[in-house]
Amino acid sequence: MAGEPQADCLFCKIVAGEVPATIVHETDTTVAFRDINPQAPTHVLVIPKAHHRDAAALAEAEPQVAADVLRAARTIAADEGVESTGYRVVFNTGPGAGQTVFHTHAHLLGGRGLEWPPG
User: What is the radius of gyration, based on Cα positions, of the chain?
Assistant: First the structure.
């Protein structure tokens, strides 16, 4: 069921404290941690604590929490010192877009030039 923790979800396990992660920010509705395979000097994943398959599902079910994810990303960008130089927030939605963990997550990337178009 949407919103409920999933036993086989890596990010649900991080939220529950069952899997270690380098947490950099936490709110009532979100948690953010460093990506284990960083693609930029700053690469943080921002997730809702509630399980939703992807960004579209989160926006449909809990638009306020989707906004919380973006607010957290902005706060982390400031804390990490990349807000003034620029940063990117990316949601991969579906396997064709590169989503490999099916729990909504935003990639916050910064600290280097981010060309367009990406990958």
Answer: 14
pTM over 0.85: yes
In angstroms, rounded to a whole number, what is the distance separating the alpha carbons of residues 64 and 44? 21
Task: Establish whether 105 is a catalytic residue.
Answer: yes
Side by side, the strands of the sheet bearing 23-26 are 23-26, 30-34, 42-48, 106-110, 87-91
Which position among 51, 52, 103, 105 bears the catalytic label? 105
Q: At residue 82, what is the residue type?
A: V
**Residue 119 reports pLDDT greater than 80:** no
Going from the N-terminus, what domains does the chain have, and what CATH number goes with each?
A: 10-43+62-110 (3.30.428.10)
